[in-house]
Design a protein that fits this description.
3 domains; two-stranded antiparallel sheet; 14 helices
């Protein structure tokens, strides 16, 4: 059962701009599957107006379309947007693509032509585009990675952001980092699949793809989820679908910071990835055991100085826009304060000049950060002890540089006391 919302391809005007010949070539790839689903493409003798309207109407019912067509449509549709097209042009294989394209092609034309010429290339770029949309990560590191992270922070914001195709071999060598070759990837896949099978998510559903991106390694993990029952109606007949949906999770390994960050739906899945990646990257289930790297105490200790952009490469301004505090009472009362700039607001307690209150727990903060080259500020959220949410257009390396230099990222207690 597929749910999706196309941006371009349900609009007859967009289809008309692409042109009938290119659309016919694309949809012919799926004619047999459409016929098996009781659907058909407009007949060759139909007028252009009827053709474009019929195709648009067909695409408005994704639940009836073959899965392969839906996947292709989502990829082509996403890469037709300005952001998606930018990712096409940044890919290391882009220089070989223009010779395949017609002159005066629109973004939609280009995405369709590339899919017809090299669908693996399009799928690869689309997967990397999807990765950038994942913004909420839980962090885990080795207890001694704080000192290593500080030593690496000087060049965090200046890394090469070029990326390439999925790595079929692995990560390569590094200080204490195990080589993840094909065999190691298979071992990791099997270990994850065992957990998914034992937790009602299906057996032999796991696939792992590895992408180098911004000096890090991004693991796209696809696996089955718990079964779903859902009613489906067609021609006044209701059926019950019983199916296993697919989920995408992401694990990112940062060699510079010697940490991983995980985007997954459940705590059990996040714990699974932290342990298994510790085992397969570092040879120890408990390697990434430090899971409290972030604190908001610099807001209280340093005041507005914690937001000073001086010496931060890639950041020109930081503003505290939202702060959530947990009062120390039996009711666990929570107060959230919003403002354009909280440090320009009056303090809670007139005896203190700092608007950050004393004797409360700082539970969450949202900052507006102006990055170099950006037309507007982008939000960054910190939720101690280990949640960081970074806007997809902002630079996570510049954010980490700020957190390290201003004390928002802390070392494990045994090393901080040394």
């Amino acid at each position: 059962m597929t749910t999706l919302k196309l941006k371009c391809f349900t609009k007859p005007g967009v289809l008309k701009r692409i042109g009938r010949p290119l659309l016919v070539r694309f949809f012919e790839q799926f004619a047999a599957e459409l016929n098996s689903n009781g659907l058909s493409l407009p007949p060759p003798h139909s007028s252009d107006a009827d053709y474009f309207n019929s195709v648009a109407h067909l695409l408005m019912r994704p639940e009836a379309l073959p899965d392969s067509l839906n996947e292709a449509l989502v990829a082509v549709d996403d890469l037709s947007t300005p952001q998606g097209f930018e990712w096409l042009e940044k890919h290391v294989r882009w220089p070989e693509q223009p010779s395949r394209l017609r002159q005066e092609s629109t973004r939609e034309d280009i995405a369709l032509q590339l899919w017809l010429a090299d669908r693996d290339f399009v799928i690869s770029v689309h997967n990397q585009l999807r990765l950038t949309r994942l913004t909420v990560f839980e962090y885990a590191s080795h207890p001694n990675s704080g000192s290593a992270a500080r030593a690496a922070s000087g060049d965090c914001a200046t890394r090469d952001h070029a990326f390439g195709p999925p790595l079929p071999i692995g990560l390569g060598e590094g200080p204490g980092v195990r080589v993840l070759d094909k065999s190691a990837i298979l071992d990791l896949t099997f270990a994850l699949d065992q957990w998914f099978a034992n937790n009602h998510r299906g057996f032999e559903t796991t696939r792992i793809e590895v992408y180098p991106l911004g000096g890090e390694f991004w693991f796209l993990i696809r696996h089955g989820d718990v079964f779903i029952r859902a009613p489906k109606v067609r021609r006044q007949i209701t059926e019950i679908l019983h199916y296993r949906p697919e989920r995408d999770d992401v694990v990112v390994y940062s060699p510079a910071l010697d940490e991983i960050r995980v985007n997954a739906r459940t705590q059990g899945e996040r714990d699974l990835y932290i342990q298994q990646f510790g085992l397969h990257l570092r040879g120890n289930l408990d390697y990434f055991s430090y899971r409290s790297p972030y604190t908001l105490e610099p807001l209280r200790a340093q005041g507005e100085g914690a937001l000073d952009p001086d010496g931060l490469e890639g950041i020109s301004n930081i503003t505290l826009r939202e702060l959530e505090i947990l009062l120390n009472n039996n009711q666990r009362e929570t107060i959230t304060r919003h403002a354009e700039d909280i440090f320009k607001c009056a303090p809670f307690d007139p005896r203190h000049s700092n608007p950050i209150p004393q004797d409360v727990h700082l539970a969450r903060a949202i900052f507006d950060i102006q990055f170099a080259g950006a037309s507007k500020a982008h939000p960054v959220e910190i939720r101690p002890p280990n949640i960081l949410k970074v806007s997809r257009r902002s630079d996570p390396h510049a954010v980490q540089d700020w957190l390290l230099k201003r004390g928002f990222r802390k070392m494990a207690p045994q090393f901080a006391a040394a």
